[in-house]
Amino acid sequence: METNMVTPAEQKIYKLVIEGMKTDDIAKVVGIQPKTVKWHLTNIYQRFEVKSRPQLVAKHFMMTLQRQQLESLSSVTTAVQDLQKMDAERKALVAKEQQSLKIHYKGREDIEKAFNKTLERMRILPDGDTAKRMRGYLMEELGYESFKS
Questions:
Q1: Rounded to whole angstroms, how far apart are CA atoms 68 and 4?
Q2: Model-level pTM greater than 0.70?
Q3: 6 falls in which pLDDT band (50, 70, 90)?
């Protein structure tokens, strides 16, 4: 129930009606005359646009259900937003790692080119397997184990 829809006295009566109390019992609990309870009920019915207790109780439970559904929807929306944020962070990390690997691999290519040029300058022309082993040792020393030839 929206507390700003009813007065404090009406709010007490409203809660007791929802609990299933009768007019005389409500009057005793609240400390007012049954006629005053009926007057408050008339105001409550008007505010909630109903004509009877059963309609008031039905409207109360309908509003409670709607509020719960909105809260659930809000929770789901928050969870989806959290998942989207986590996915964006994951994608950013993957992109960063991919970039790092590209730079790492580019560095390997540059080192291999420099190695081959050095061999040519020194006029060392080892056979294919020997060059491959030398290149592998160099890459290992430089920390490029995952790119061994």
A1: 19
A2: no
A3: confident
